[in-house]
Amino acid sequence: MKDWDPEYQPVLQNFRVGQTIRSYSRTVTESDLVAFIGFTGMRMPIFIDREYAEQQGPYGARICPGFLTASVAGGMLESILGRNVLAGLGMDELRFLTPVKIGDTLHAIVEILESRLTREPGRGVLRVRIRTLNQRGDTALEFLASVLIKADAD
């Protein structure tokens, strides 16, 4: 498995099917949760009410919205694929598997599933599987994504 390198700016041909790349790690903070729920307007008690979450919630603490985790994973994916990504084409099979709590440290494992050139020169499509894991190795989130990326013109 290759580790994330912030200076590396790959193109389509730098990825190979079956390759896995591990992202940087990032700890989710109270500020992250407050900013995200404020921006999105999500107001479920499990996200915003500590007393409710600790006494009545199923996890014993507030949890982060799954879409916060997905947003963090998207940033991690972008850091791996680099600035040569031209567009996101879609996400499939998005699954929230383990709740993320304040203080959890996340990283992503990106697996290259498909790599192909498009009809337009200098462009290609990557299809990837993204697994976002916490510090215990539990998978918090998993999804498939397709992106349009620059390619070397042959």
Give the helices and strands, then pairings.
Blueprint lengths: L1 E2 L16 E8 L2 H11 L4 H4 L1 H6 L10 H16 L3 E12 L8 E13 L5 E11 L5 E12 L4
Parallel strand pairs: 1-2
Antiparallel strand pairs: 2-4, 3-6, 4-5, 5-6
Give structural attributes.
single chain; 154 residues; alpha+beta; Thiol Ester Dehydrase, Chain A; 6-stranded mixed β-sheet; 4 helices; 6 strands
How is this structure best described in words?
- The structure is a single chain.
- The protein is α+β, with helices and mostly antiparallel strands and 154 residues long.
- The protein has one domain (2-27, 64-150): Roll (Thiol Ester Dehydrase, Chain A), CATH 3.10.129.10.
- The protein contains four helices and six strands, in the order E-E-H-H-H-H-E-E-E-E.
- A six-stranded mixed beta sheet has the order 1-2-4-5-6-3, with helices on one face.
- Strand 4 and strand 5 (123-133) form a beta hairpin.
- It starts with a strand and ends with a strand.
- The mean pLDDT is 94.
> Rough shape?
elongated
Distance between the termini: 28 Å
The appropriate CATH architecture is Roll
Please indicate the count of domains. Answer: 1
Low-confidence stretches: none
CATH superfamily: Hotdog Thioesterase
Tell me the fraction of residues in β-strands, as a range. Answer: 35-45%
**CATH fold field value:** Thiol Ester Dehydrase, Chain A
Provide the spatial order of strands within the biggest beta sheet. Answer: 1-2-4-5-6-3
Structural class: alpha+beta
* Secondary-structure element series: EEHHHHEEEE
Number of strands: 6
Main sheet attributes: strand count, strand direction, barrel closure: 6 strands, mixed
Instruction: Tell me the radius of gyration.
Output: 17 Å
The level of helicity is 10-25%
Q: Give the overall average pLDDT.
A: 94
Number of continuous helical runs: 4
CATH level 1 class label? Alpha Beta
